Amino acid sequence: MNRELLRNISFYAIILALQLLIFNQFKLFDLVTPFIYLIIFIHYRISYDKTALLLIGFLIGFIIDLSMQTYGCHTFSTITICYLRSNIEKSSFGVNANLPLAMIKGTPLLSRVSFFLSLIIIHSILYYLFIFFNISLLSTIFLYAFVNSIATFIIVWIISGLISNR
Amino acid sequence: MQSIINSIVKNRNLIIYLVLSFISFNFLFNNSSLHHNELGKISTYLSATSSKFLSSINSYFNLKKENEKLINENLQLKKIESKYRFTETNKDKLKSLSSAKVILNSINKSKNIIIIDKGKLDSISLEMGVISSDGVVGIVKNVTNNYASIISLLNTDLRLNAILKNSSTIGSVSWDGLNARILKLNDIPLSSSLKVGDTVVTGGMSFYFPKGVPIGKIINYDNSSLEGYYEIDIEVFNDFSSLSNLYILGRTDNDEIKSLLDE
Q1: Pick from A19, B52, B55, B182: CA 20 to 30 A from residue A91's CA?
Q2: pTM above 0.80, yes or no
């Protein structure tokens, strides 16, 4: 258990470092910053405590907010997807979703894509809603959320593939 | 107590989520001037909207009070207007002007009656004239302590002294029991000149109304009668189907005139 915990913490630290040092500097088309730290919440074992997931989400979101000067937008979006994660997992994988199915080989591709995209899109929409905080800019908010979700999804999918291969 | 604790434990994730969300919002709105300003705008809008909503509800429940206030104001204005209108021809004849609400009204019979919520205790007595803001309504017929019945203009028994406003030709107004908007103006000789649209007002030659209270306007007349009088249709100013507030006129000179007639 301790070994697993240590491995998880190392994984979180590496992803966080990648986000802070590399992807935060990344500005695709001047509007896209992929949020690869979402991979932490995608790969979190739901058999672990959901309360712990919420607290981890809060901590990671808070660190990202401090580094990007986004004052709580990441924190709120992240704890929301952490709270909704079990529901999204059930809707993507069906009622028998009880283990980290997203990482199990043989899981239907469509289910995995649906699970990844749902988490990423909800996070992006919430994040940009709070970043712009102006209902008259709804089309811009959805454009940013869409482009960002696609970029995040591609990178997260690739990293997930690498992890599962290992 | 145990059930409360169980409920909290059961919903701990929701509670933690709400607490963490609150901390995030607090962090966001305290540190970002954009969000702080926008939140201020939303707060102003919400408070204004809720105040407006509460105000409209409040005003709805105050409608009765407002209505009574308006009736009283209307009564005061009516008194001033009546005094002004009747000053020249009816000096000091108007003793009082009381308001009353219609509680029963009919227009579909040949002898229509209106019941009002004022009676002897409110100084209402027999044969007082009754008007609305649009003109003549009828005459008080019976009075109890708290109620009074009025013979409406839409009563075939009532004949009311009237004149043409422009020519001062004297006639009388009655109802033929057919159309609730149309009265007959009788006894106007063919020698008089009149036209459609002329106003008919009370003639002042009765105990009930002073001179000049509006009744209606001429909408049609026939001068082919062999009896030497016009047959005139007048449209009443009052809509008798929607009467609500009435005013009862009290005249100072009725008793004096009646005593002379009795002698």
Answers
A1: A19
A2: no
User: How close B131 comes to chain A (CA, Å)?
Assistant: 58
Query: Is the same domain home to B57 and B92?
Result: no
Residue B186 lies in a domain: yes
Confidence band, pLDDT 50/70/90 cuts, at residue A124: very high
B140: tokens are 């008080």
User: Is A26 strand, coil or helix?
Assistant: coil
Which of chain A's residues have a Cβ under 8 Å away from the Cβ of B23? 58, 72, 75
* Residue (of A23, A25, A17) closest to A151 by Cα position: A23
Q: Is residue B257 included in any domain, yes or no?
A: yes
The verdict on B99 and B215 lying in the same domain is yes
Question: How near does any CA of chain A get to the CA of B32, in Å?
Answer: 7
Q: Are residues B105 and B56 in the same domain?
A: no
Tell me the pLDDT band of A102, cut-offs 50, 70 and 90: very low
Structural domain total, chain B: 2
**What residue in B sits closest to A50 (Cα-Cα)?**
B13
Is residue B205 in some structural domain?
A: yes
Among B17, B23, B35, the residue with its CB nearest the CB of A83 is B17
pLDDT beyond 90 at A122: yes
* Residue B44 C-alpha, separation from nearest chain A C-alpha, in angstroms: 15
Structural domain range at position B181: 88-262
The partner residue sitting opposite B28, judged by closest CB among A58, A72, A80, is: A72
The stretch A64-90 carries a mean pLDDT of 88
Are residues B157 and B222 both part of a single domain?
yes
List chain A residues with CB under 8 Å of B35: 71, 130, 133
Rounded to whole angstroms, the Cα distance separating A74 from A90 reads 24
Nearest to A138 by CA among A153, A125, A149, A151: A125
Q: Match 């803001």 to its residue by tokens.
A: B133
- A71 shares contact with chain B (CB less than 8 Å): yes
Task: Spell out, as residue ranges, where chain B has pLDDT lower than 70.
Answer: 82-95, 251-258, 261-263
Say yes or no: B171 and B224 in one domain. yes
Position A149 scores a pLDDT of 92
Whether B110 and B229 share a structural domain: yes
